[in-house]
Write a structure and sequence with these properties.
Blueprint: H1 14-26, H2 30-37, H3 41-53, E1 60-64, H4 70-78, E2 83-88, H5 91-96, E3 106-110, E4 123-129, H6 138-148, E5 149-160, H7 171-188, H8 193-203, H9 207-216, E6 221-227, E7 232-238
Parallel strand pairs: 1-2, 1-4, 2-3, 4-5
Antiparallel strand pairs: 5-7, 6-7
Helix pairs in contact: 3-4, 7-8
């Protein structure tokens, strides 16, 4: 059962509430859109994230921006004894993913990455797939992630390559600005959501800039791995 936890009112800025509401609106078609817009590649990208996280058997993982529980379900399947917390600012997204929590071992949690309702040093791994660009300021989330990770813990981030760089000879950039918003609107009937998606990808830091940002935030080491010719990047950082 999904906890009826309300979000901290101090975090409900106009922007944060708008983003949460937007994802709530597209929750019914979110999985379909992911498969269509990525040509099915999003499944292999998430598998790479879970493999990089390599959580210890019997350990604890926090999946941030968990959405409809795709990553949380993969984590649970990879280690049956794993404890998985799936946190998202949008409760409708979490509720949409209930069918993936077949054994009831994933704990969905309505929470903001900038103020997590967890004790210090309480999880061994933190994962986040395609959600970091929606968090502002990121520095607050980095601080919270470092607080809740155990010593030697690891953060694994899956995120789109920046639209500020030419990828695949510019085809990726054309896809972002023209095709993605149009197809997203067609399927979801939401004019805002996938225009917002394209804009946040274009505004997101390049992989080297993001890694420098994470080092400045206090992570002891940071690595980056391009997937699908840099369309997506897998960033891993340690505390």
């Amino acid at each position: 059962m999904i906890p009826r936890q309300s979000l901290d009112p101090s975090l409900q800025t106009q922007t944060g509430k708008a983003v949460g509401d937007m994802f709530g609106r597209i929750a019914p078609v979110y999985d379909l859109l992911n498969r269509c817009l990525s040509l099915g590649l999003d499944i292999s990208w998430r598998k790479a994230l879970v493999q990089a996280a390599a959580p210890p058997s019997g350990g604890r993982v926090l999946d941030l921006a968990a959405g409809t529980l795709d990553v949380a379900a993969m984590l649970q399947a990879s280690r049956p004894r794993l404890s998985v917390l799936a946190a998202d600012i949008s409760l409708p997204m979490l509720m949409r993913g209930r069918s993936k929590n077949r054994q009831g071992k994933i704990l969905p949690l309505g929470a903001d990455a900038r103020r997590l309702p967890l004790p210090d040093a309480s999880v061994d791994r933190v994962t986040i797939a395609f959600g970091l660009r929606n968090i502002r300021p990121r520095e607050n989330a980095y601080a919270e992630i470092q607080r809740v990770l155990t010593p030697g813990g690891r953060l694994c981030i899956l995120e789109f390559g920046s639209g500020g760089q030419r990828i695949l000879g510019g085809l990726y950039n054309l896809y972002l600005t023209r095709f993605l918003p149009a197809l997203g609107r067609l399927i979801s009937r939401d004019r805002q959501a996938y225009t917002y998606l394209a804009r946040t990808i274009c505004e997101f830091p390049t992989a080297p800039a993001l890694e420098a940002e994470m080092r400045t935030a206090g992570f002891s080491w940071v690595t980056g791995l391009p997937l699908s010719s840099g369309i997506v990047w897998l960033h891993t950082a340690g505390v």
